[in-house]
Amino acid sequence: QPVLTQPPSSSASPGESVRLTCTLPSDIPVGGYNIYWYQQKPGSPPRFLLYYFSDTDKGQGSGVPSRFSAYTDTSANTGILLISGVQSEDEADYFCAVWTRHVVFGGGTKLAVL
Amino acid sequence: QITLKESGPTLVKPTQTLTLTCSFSGFSLSATGVGVGWIRQPPGKALEWLSLIYWDGDKRYNSSLKSRLSITKDTSRNQVVLTMTNMDPTDSATYYCAHKVRSGGYYDPWGQGTLVTVSS
Prior knowledge:
The structure holds two protein chains of two kinds. By secondary structure, chain A is mainly beta. Chain A has strands at residues 9-12, 18-23, 35-40, 47-54, 57-60, 68-73, 78-83, 92-99, 103-105, 109-113. In chain A, strands 1, 3, 4, 5, 8, 9 and 10 form a seven-stranded mixed sheet that branches. The relative contact order of chain A is 0.34. Chain B is mainly beta. Chain B is 0% helix and 51% strand. Chain B contains no helices and eleven strands. In chain B, the strands form two sheets. In chain B, strands 2, 4, 5, 6, 9, 10 and 11 form a seven-stranded mixed sheet that branches. In chain B, a hairpin with a 6-residue loop joins strand 9 (93-100) and strand 10. Chain B is globular and about 40 Å long. Classes of the chains: A mainly beta, B mainly beta. The A-B interface holds A 2, 34, 36, 38, 44-48, 51, 59, 61-62, 95, 97, 99, 101-108 and B 37, 39, 46-49, 52, 60-63, 96, 98, 104-113.
């Protein structure tokens, strides 16, 4: 059972914005950890997208489009991946991760671009 | 350009020991801060972090699997080896090795992965 909770599926139409959530357990405060986001397409390994700690401490993976961004909602103890202007090529599984004593992953969200 | 490639058996029997090798290029595992990790993914399921070895030999293991895992490195050959004992059908998964970046807690890039099936 993954420690980080992600909805199993989401959908968006091309051009829309979509928010994918990653809820941390109460003993892992979202404000105290980097949240890492990975994208995985069928038959391929995960690809690092970006990480977010704060608006002044964040980083984009090499070659990752700027339409991918992230932020956190401390009231919900949740990390959020925002994809602005979704494209068909963004259809994939998205995993969040946190490094505590070791890396823990979320269960992943399958994004369908309809 | 950093590349990693996993190799090992595709089929192991229950109770056997799995040995996987990660061969990499484009970086040195003697460079400060660098690491190589192993992550697995059962078909259609989530990722599970297994182990990490740092440039200085420091080793980390998933606490729930620690008694079954061992990770070593051969810096001169640019290889990292993961062994997992007492394999079970529930260990069937794609096993990935990945480069842990020097200054962050993320893995980039990953190898293509190797599918391991545990069956008698």
